[in-house]
Design goal:
Layout: E1 13-15, E2 20-22, H1 29-54, E3 57-60, E4 65-67, E5 77-85, E6 89-95, E7 100-103, E8 109-111, E9 121-123, E10 132-140, E11 143-154, E12 158-163, E13 168-176, E14 181-185, E15 191-197, E16 203-210, E17 218-225, E18 228-235, H2 236-255
Parallel strand pairs: 3-11
Antiparallel strand pairs: 1-2, 4-9, 5-6, 5-10, 6-7, 8-9, 10-11, 12-13, 13-16, 14-17, 15-16, 17-18
Bound molecules: 2-acetamido-2-deoxy-beta-D-glucopyranose (9 copies).
Length: about 260
């Protein structure tokens, strides 16, 4: 809504030639005063927004991302545009005079609210290809404003802990973004790590630990990641039990066949 409309002699009109909104002549001093007050308020608002947008946004794949711009409800809004530079380039634009949105972005991107009040951008569900830079541009009677933010998509890894016959435990954190950190309890100086980078930006890390001379009955693999922390334990004595039971079972079958 253009709240200043009633204060302008001609209201808010979109000029096709200059692509700029003309707000007519100010009706009275009241308008000039109100404009000065709102400029001051919006300046403070934009100032505070600036800091929140200087931080990049981290969102987990599959979740909802909301990229904030600024409130437009107190502006005589002409147009608001989101320019998106991710794996592909696209834009989402709203023209206030026509109450119309044009876009060539994915159908997963839309306004979170009504763009004439709050042109926040909603992405749902977020996927890896959405990572990139998002710029919101507001064209209004009080000038044009730009806000940039960057979106990082994080993906929790799939964690497994296994062991093999040569008494090596293998902890794998597959296809995480960023790469997960793997550590062990008890800590060992005899562990090694491998890393595989995938084309979609995710990373698989595999950590190996040998426990030939270990006195411990369990090993625990600790996986640390911005989207999740997970501890997996392997019972080393339990493994022996399993093989003993399996052995008895085989003997039983042999005897009674
Ligand atoms: C959207 O349009 C812009 C400019 O017209 C173009 O550069 C961009 O490639 C288009 N994006 C898609 C996803 O079609
Ligand atoms: C603008 O269009 C939307 C639907 O596209 C509608 O819900 C809304 O009421 C319209 N707003 C105005 C001010 O006409
Ligand atoms: C992301 O979503 C687009 C559709 O908007 C789809 O084409 C693409 O395959 C998806 N990418 C991933 C990595 O899931
Ligand atoms: C980026 O797009 C290319 C093709 O345009 C595709 O092969 C690639 O998987 C995409 N990357 C991501 C992270 O979605
Ligand atoms: C986003 O901006 C940063 C810094 O300005 C740049 O390094 C990066 O390549 C941009 N990303 C995309 C997808 O354009
Ligand atoms: C691990 O550290 C112990 C002492 O804490 C040392 O005796 C042993 O040689 C080290 N092993 C390796 C593989 O570095
Ligand atoms: C990324 O690529 C890896 C390896 O191809 C695949 O296992 C994983 O599922 C992909 N992750 C996403 C989120 O697309
Ligand atoms: C270290 O681990 C390797 C297997 O990764 C194993 O062969 C070796 O015996 C282990 N050394 C010690 C001191 O535990
Ligand atoms: C994993 O274990 C460590 C050390 O015992 C502990 O500090 C941490 O809280 C545990 N994390 C989870 C997710 O259980």
């Amino acid at each position: 809504m253009c709240l200043h409309r009633e204060l302008c002699t001609q209201g808010c009109q979109y000029s096709k030639k200059t692509e700029i909104l003309k707000c007519g002549e100010a009706k009275s001093h009241a308008y000039a005063l109100m404009k000065a007050v709102t400029s001051f308020l919006t300046f403070n608002f934009f100032f505070s927004i600036f800091f929140s947008l200087s931080l990049s946004l981290n969102v987990e794949a599959g979740h909802e991302a909301v990229l904030t711009c600024a409130s437009t409800s107190k502006l005589c809004l002409v147009m608001v545009t989101w320019e998106i530079k991710s794996n592909t380039s696209c834009s989402l634009a709203y023209r206030n005079d026509r109450n119309e949105t044009k876009l060539n972005c994915s159908e997963r991107m839309m306004w979170k609210y009504s763009p004439d009040r709050d042109p926040a951008l909603r992405i749902y569900p977020v996927n890896l290809s959405d990572e990139g830079n998002y710029t919101c541009e507001i064209a209004s009677d009080m000038g044009n404003f730009h806000f940039s933010s960057s979106l990082s998509v994080i993906v929790p890894p799939t964690v497994t802990l296994t062991s093999d016959k040569s008494r090596v435990a293998v902890c794998q954190a597959a296809a995480g973004k960023p790469a997960a950190k793997i550590s062990w309890i008890p800590a060992s100086n005899n562990s090694s790590e491998e890393e595989f980078k995938h084309g979609n930006g995710t990373v698989t890390r595999v950590s190996y630990i040998g426990w030939v001379n270990s006195m411990h009955t369990t090993v625990t693999c600790l996986v640390t990641h911005p989207a999740m922390n997970q501890n997996l334990s392997l019972d080393l004595s339990g493994k022996k039990h399993h093989s003993v039971i399996a052995c008895h079972h085989a003997l039983f079958l042999l005897l009674f066949q």
